[in-house]
Amino acid sequence: MLFQLSDEQKLIRDGVREVCKKFPPKYWRDCDRRKTYPEEFVRELTAGGWLAALIPTEYGGSGLGLTEASIILEEINKSGANGAACHAQMYTMGAILRHGTIDQKEKYLPKIAKGTLRLQAFAVTEPTAGTDTTRISTTAEKKGDRYVINGQKIFISRVQHSDLMLILVRTKSYEEVQKKTDGMTLFLVDLREAGDAVHAEPIETMINHETNTVYIQNLDVAAENIIGQENRGFYHILDGINAERILIASEAIGDARWFIDQAVNYSNTRVVFGRPIGQNQGIQFPIAKAYAEVEAADLVRFQAAGLFDTGKPCGREANLAKYLATEASWNSANVTMTTFGGYGMATDFDIERKFRDSRLLLVAPVPNNLILSYLAEHVLRLPRSY
Fold it and tell me: What is the model's pTM?
C-alpha cells in the first residue's frame, strides 16, 4: 500500500501549520517557564474546528477519520508545540460517541465540537493500582437512581481546564466478580457542578504537563450519567485504546521530525575546525539512523490508522505504531541533544524543552514495556507474563 497524503489531507496539514505559526517558540518557552496552560493556542485550534475532527457532522464536528486526526496532531508537534495540551478534547469524547445514549450524544457532542464544553479529563489511574486497572478501588455506591462516588485518582491531566470528566469506578468489588474486568462502570461527571466533592491537587513534574491527584468524596451522580452499561465500563474504555495509541504515535512522529530538522539545520551551519559538523560521519550517521527509524514508524502509523478507519482489527498495528514512534522520537531527541552539545541545554534553542516532552511518551499513556508484553502474548503467542 502507498501511504501518501491526499489533496484534502495536505490542506488539513497546511491549515494546522498556519495556526501553529501564530505561536512561535517564545510562546512555548514562556508557557514552559511559567508552567502555564497554553490557553490561547487551544482556543485557536478549537475555533478552527481542528479538535472536532473525529466528531460526526450531525453533531457539529468535521466527521474526519483517525488518519486525518493523526495528521493534525503530528503537525502540531512538528511545529515545536505540544498537542498533549488538548489532544484529549479530540478523542476522549469517543466513549460518548460509541457507547452513549442518543440523548447523551445530542446533549454533549455539539457543545464539545463547538468548544463551549470541554471534555479533557479522563480519570482511570489510581495510586495503588497503576496500570492494573482491574485493581482500582474508587467505588460508586447505588442509592436509588443515583450513585455516590468515593476514591482517589492520580496523574489525571487537564482537570482545571475541563468542564467534564470521565471516571472509571467499581460498582462491584473485585471479590464479587467472576471475571476481574467486570464490575467497573464509566461515569461522566460535570466538574462545574461537583463542588467540594472533587478536589484536584496539581503534581509538579519535569515538564509543563498539567496533571493532578484527584480526590473524590461523596460525589453524587445521577444514573443517567453512566456511559454505556453498568459494570461494563472496562470494555467501553478498551475499544478507545487503539485510537489513543495511534494518535500518541502521531505526536511522537511530529516530535521526531522536529528534532531531525533541528539537528540537520544546526549540523549544516555549525562550523568547527573549519568545516560544518554535519560533514563528519560521527554526526551524519546518528541523524540518518534517527530519520530511518521515524520513517518506518510513520508507515506503521498510517497502516494502523487506515485499519481503524475501515473498521478492521488494528490492535497489533496500533501498539506497534506507539512503540516504534515513541522510541524513534526519544532516539531523535538524544541525537539532537548530542548534536547541539552544550547549546542543547540552553532554553533558547528549545531542544531541552522538547527533549523533556518526548520522554513522557515512553511511559504514558502506557509504558512501552507493557506494549512489548502485549505483542509477546497476543501476537507471538508467548505465555502471559503478568
Answer: 0.97
